[in-house]
Request: fold
Amino acid sequence: MSITSEVKKEIIAKYGTSADDTGCPEVQIAIWTYRI
Reply:
């Protein structure tokens, strides 16, 4: 199951420092955890 762009945006908004912050560890771990 792939992650939708809407869910990814929600995760970035919750864990990132900005709307474009996709590389910080918190965002990456949250996305990986969601996939599991």
Remarks:
- The two ends are 9 Å apart (CA to CA).
- Residues 5-35 form one domain.
- The mean pLDDT is 89.
- The helical segments are 5-15, 25-35.
